[in-house]
From TrEMBL:
<dbReference type="InterPro" id="IPR016024">
    <property type="entry name" value="ARM-type_fold"/>
</dbReference>
<keyword id="KW-0677">Repeat</keyword>
<dbReference type="GO" id="GO:0019135">
    <property type="term" value="F:deoxyhypusine monooxygenase activity"/>
</dbReference>
<comment type="function">
    <text>Catalyzes the hydroxylation of the N(6)-(4-aminobutyl)-L-lysine intermediate produced by deoxyhypusine synthase/DHPS on a critical lysine of the eukaryotic translation initiation factor 5A/eIF-5A. This is the second step of the post-translational modification of that lysine into an unusual amino acid residue named hypusine. Hypusination is unique to mature eIF-5A factor and is essential for its function.</text>
</comment>
<dbReference type="GO" id="GO:0046872">
    <property type="term" value="F:metal ion binding"/>
</dbReference>
<dbReference type="InterPro" id="IPR011989">
    <property type="entry name" value="ARM-like"/>
</dbReference>
<keyword id="KW-0503">Monooxygenase</keyword>
<keyword id="KW-0560">Oxidoreductase</keyword>
<comment type="pathway">
    <text>Protein modification; eIF5A hypusination.</text>
</comment>
<keyword id="KW-0386">Hypusine biosynthesis</keyword>
<keyword id="KW-0479">Metal-binding</keyword>
<dbReference type="Pfam" id="PF03130">
    <property type="entry name" value="HEAT_PBS"/>
</dbReference>
<dbReference type="Pfam" id="PF13646">
    <property type="entry name" value="HEAT_2"/>
</dbReference>
<dbReference type="InterPro" id="IPR004155">
    <property type="entry name" value="PBS_lyase_HEAT"/>
</dbReference>
<keyword id="KW-0408">Iron</keyword>
<protein>
    <recommendedName>
        <fullName>deoxyhypusine monooxygenase</fullName>
        <ecNumber>1.14.99.29</ecNumber>
    </recommendedName>
</protein>
Length: 237
């Protein structure tokens, strides 16, 4: 069993700006794996750092830990307009990942945030929390992946129907994400090609496409015939 002193040593590495970023990331993911209040406290201290990338990952890890004791710091980060949009939006996603309905009203409030990344992520988080309330006892994530996803995969398994939902801009973002994760779980060439179309669509470089957006990319990379679709994607502005 890891002692509090050992957690402290790892935490000091995480918050030390003199340490290489990759070393600090290793400390972060070690703390995530250890869990508990002391790990959460050290991760929370990292939000004072100047690296937006590191702070984004801090929020991500707190969400993946699914510990309600992380809610206060994540709420502070979401509400802090001095934090970078990518950090605030990840805090919103993390609050949804934790799954505690006490933040539902706050997430609804920020679903109309002027920063599109924040607003769309909070919309997804609201959708996830409401889904959990409507489906008590059901597992929100299923399939071969261990991550806590922003939306549960759709029950539909027909690739054609999932593709239609994914590409339909009239559909709620939450339902499109459910289709995306279902396609990820189905796997195979046809699913990967459908995801490639989604990647090339209007939401490819907008809104919430970071950790969630990585899933289609991983599928595409594992599907040799689909790689050209990924290589041809335009770079973000």
């Amino acid at each position: 069993m890891v002692t509090e002193q050992e957690v402290e040593a790892i935490g000091k590495t995480l918050v030390d700006p003199k340490e290489p970023l990759q070393t600090r990331f290793r400390a972060l993911f070690t703390l995530r794996g250890l869990g508990g209040p002391h790990a959460i406290a050290w991760i929370s201290r990292g939000f004072e750092d100047s690296s937006a990338l590191l702070k984004h990952e801090l929020a991500y890890c707190l969400g993946q830990m699914q510990d309600s004791r992380a809610i206060p710091v994540l709420v502070d980060v979401l509400c802090d307009t001095n934090q970078e949009p990518m950090v605030r939006h990840e805090a919103g996603e993390a609050l949804g990942a934790i799954g505690n309905p006490e933040v539902l009203d706050l997430l609804k409030q920020y679903s109309t945030d002027p920063v599109v990344e924040v607003a769309e992520t909070c919309q997804l988080a609201v959708g996830r929390l409401e889904w959990l309330q409507q489906h008590p006892g059901e597992v929100a994530s299923s399939g071969p992946y261990l991550s806590v996803d922003p939306a549960p995969p759709a029950a539909e398994r027909d690739v054609g129907r999932l593709r239609e939902t994914l590409l339909d801009e009239a559909q709620p973002l939450f339902e499109r994400y459910r289709a995306m994760f279902a396609l990820r779980n189905v796997g195979g060439k046809e699913a990967a090609l459908a995801l490639a179309e989604g990647e090339a669509g209007t939401w490819g470089w907008e809104g919430v496409g970071d950790h969630a957006g990585c899933y289609p990319t991983v599928v595409l990379l594992s599907c040799a015939p689909c790689r050209p679709a990924l290589w041809q994607r335009p770079l973000p502005p």
